[in-house]
UniProtKB/TrEMBL annotation:
Domain called GS catalytic: residue spans: 91-338
Function noted in UniProt: Catalyzes the ATP-dependent biosynthesis of glutamine from glutamate and ammonia.
Keyword Nucleotide-binding attached: yes
Database matches in Pfam families: Gln-synt_C, Gln-synt_N
Protein name from the UniProt record: Glutamine synthetase
Reaction(s) catalysed by this chain's protein: L-glutamate + NH4(+) + ATP = L-glutamine + ADP + phosphate + H(+)
Gene Ontology terms for molecular function: ATP binding; glutamine synthetase activity
The protein's enzyme class: ligase
Species for this entry: Streptomyces boncukensis
Residues in GS beta-grasp domain copies: 3-84
Length: 338
């Protein structure tokens, strides 16, 4: 049977790239390492002018398509110009170079992707023309009065597992209709590739339920938690000793670094990092053990065992994992190799 290959890529939407995809029929038996490059109309995705609109899709990661089943595939792509150079929207290309440079330190990431379901104009679980009971009972809740969208969440988890993604857990979040899945620990390129494919599967799965999912970092104004993408990070040295943990935390706070990072951690990050709702103010860098009000948290087991990983709590749900992991590897691994 012919293979339906769904080619996925990130577009040129501003200020936050969106996922796009289209289907290509491949000959039966096409090997995953022989997937052809393809093209698309960049003038329809904010990536080119109409006069020279052709852009190239270069397959970089593929996995079974859990929705279509069988031999069908999801194919994540980088976007290139026809001359082979990376398109400016191709943030993966820059991560490739940085990850390769610091490969010897064996960096690993676990990303906690938060998101919010919407039905029409309201977060799922928000009553028409009003608000649900204040936050408190929803996080990791159970029951129809506390949890909204679980059928979609379970289906999405099954799809991630069937696709072979490195998903490590899910939970209901603090605001009604808000959820989280975690990907990792994985190497930088792998964690970011898996996040993008898992995001696509989330939107695609919810679509069949007539529900939309958003990565909006502040989907409900007022006293409701925002949505982040806490990024857990370690190198071999950090997994072996505490000095490296402290070095990484200090490196993230070095002159100029906090602003450089926060600026690249997703559109609207200042609106989310207010100092309330389990966040640190975006313009004040801090780190601490068990501190969910710090920019960077050292989990308590890590301080107890004197080794492990750190959690950068600042990235928004809508952050680009290629950009976040590149900055963290660059900043921390450069400091650690000294
Ligand atoms: P939280 O308590 O902040 O909600 P989670 O359990 O949601 O934490 O997420 C913790 C993440 O840390 C997981 O995605 C996991 O894969 C990741 N993680 C665990 N160990 C490491 C490590 N050594 N390096 C990087 N990430 C790690
Ligand atoms: Mn056409
Ligand atoms: Mn979590
Ligand atoms: Mn969370
Ligand atoms: Mn967390």
């Amino acid at each position: 049977m012919s293979i339906k290959a769904e080619y996925l890529w990130t577009d040129g939407s501003q200020p936050t790239a969106k996922l796009r995809s289209k289907t290509r029929i491949l000959a039966p038996g096409t090997a995953a390492d022989a997937l052809p490059t393809w093209g698309f109309d960049g003038s329809s995705t904010g990536q080119a002018e109409g006069g020279s609109s052709d852009l190239v899709l270069t397959p970089v990661f593929s996995c079974p398509d859990p929705l279509r089943g069988g031999e069908h595939l999801l194919v994540l792509c980088e976007v290139h110009h026809v001359d082979g150079t990376p398109h400016p929207s191709n943030t993966r290309a820059a991560l490739r170079a940085v990850a390769e440079r610091h490969e010897g330190q064996e960096p690993l990431f676990g990303i906690e992707q938060e998101y919010t379901f919407f039905e029409g104009a309201r977060p799922l679980g928000f009553p028409e023309g009003g608000f649900p009971a204040p936050q408190g009972g929803y996080y990791c809740g159970v029951g129809a009065d506390e949890v909204f969208g679980r059928a979609v969440v379970e289906k999405h988890l099954d799809h991630c597992l069937a696709a072979g993604l490195g998903v490590s857990g899910i939970n209901a979040e603090v605001m009604p209709g808000q959820w989280e899945f975690q990907i990792g620990p994985l190497a930088p390129l792998a964690v970011a590739d898996h996040i993008w494919v898992a995001r696509w599967l989330l939107f695609r799965t919810a679509e069949d339920f007539g529900i939309s999912a958003t990565l909006d970092p502040k989907p409900a104004k007022g006293d409701w938690n925002g949505a982040g993408a806490h990024t857990n990070f370690s190198t071999r040295a950090m997994r072996e000793g505490y000095d490296a943990i402290v070095t990484a935390c200090e490196a993230l706070g070095a002159e100029g670094k906090p602003l450089e990072h926060v600026r690249a951690y997703g559109a609207g990050v200042q609106e989310r990092l207010t100092g309330a709702h389990e966040t640190a103010p975006w313009d004040e860098y801090s780190y601490g053990v068990s501190d969910r009000g710090a920019s960077v948290r050292i989990p308590w087991q890590v301080e107890q065992e004197k080794k492990g990983y750190i959690e950068d709590r600042r990235p928004n749900a809508n952050a680009d994992p290629y950009v976040v992991t590149r900055l963290m590897v660059d900043t921390c691994c450069t400091a650690l190799e000294k």
